[in-house]
């Protein structure tokens, strides 16, 4: 079989779209359609059926994909030894999905590491949306994502951080010097940040109590919390430990342990599963992991404009 047909098969399978597959392969959609027709004739199967706006794989295509994917990966590994990736000459754009906290805590490190080795490369940060990131990684829209464990599917990932949560309040809060029980905490007016990776777990824990009350303030960014707590000392917030510790150094805030059990949030580096440019993806993954694990974080810079 023509190797180009194998590339087309894998691209359609991973992109689930003839148009996006054509963009990835730098050919026209017409060329992809013609290749698909040849594939169907050669393999004697429909392979992909348009369903709900996407090209859904048949059972035969699902069975064939792992073998075709591995074959392409093996070929790329051989080619990469002949023409190895040169970061110093690369002008490509790396797309990395980060949450607000990920961008504040790690982006500076990632930019430093990438530009040190690939000064002409570009970095584009994509907003991390948990419900979309699996699709983005599988279709190659994002190269790397730093996200909580729990993304569905068999995406390759590396655990990089375990994050606990703490209760934060103003030094002028009535309970600043007291122990706070779970029942008392659930009755306190609080600030919530629904975009936080741990927000679902927090809400689930709190809603399980008869003392639960809706958040008094729902904010979009952690940076808004310190000035609110200072201006409204009756409010509290539950935030990642690293952020609370940084705030306590520069803001009149108190950080306390949570009075209930909450499993630490586990963050991992995920990498896209599409087959193209595997050597480049290997390089980028190593650079991002080094930036996160070996360099100091910058969470304390979330100061809310104090």
Kindly describe this structure:
The chain is an alpha/beta fold. It is built from eleven helices and twelve strands. It has helices at 3-15, 18-25, 29-43, 59-82, 100-117, 130-138, 182-187, 199-207, 225-231, 241-250, 278-293, and strands at residues 48-51, 54-57, 93-98, 122-127, 144-148, 157-163, 165-170, 190-192, 217-218, 236-240, 253-257, 265-271. The strands form three sheets. It has a five-stranded mixed β-sheet, sandwiched between helices. A five-stranded mixed β-sheet has the order 9-8-10-7-11. Helix 1 packs across helix 2, helix 1 crosses helix 3 and helix 1 crosses helix 4 (59-82). The longest helix is centred in the first third of the chain and has 24 residues, at 59-82. It is elongated, with a radius of gyration of 24 Å.
Give a brief outline of the structure.
The protein is α/β, with parallel strands linked by helices and 306 residues long.
Note the main attributes of this structure.
306 residues, alpha/beta, 11 helices, 12 strands
Helix content: 40-55%
The main pleated sheet reads as: 5 strands, mixed
Low-confidence stretches: none
Query: Given the structure, what is the number of helices?
Result: 11
How much strand content do the residues show? 15-25%
- Report the count of strand segments: 12
Structural class: alpha/beta
Task: Let me know the average pLDDT.
Answer: 87
Shape: elongated
Order of neighbouring strands in the sheet with most strands: 4-3-5-12-6
Order of helices and strands: HHHEEHEHEHEEEHEHEHEHEEH
End-to-end Cα distance, whole Å, is 64 Å
Q: What is the rounded Rg?
A: 24 Å
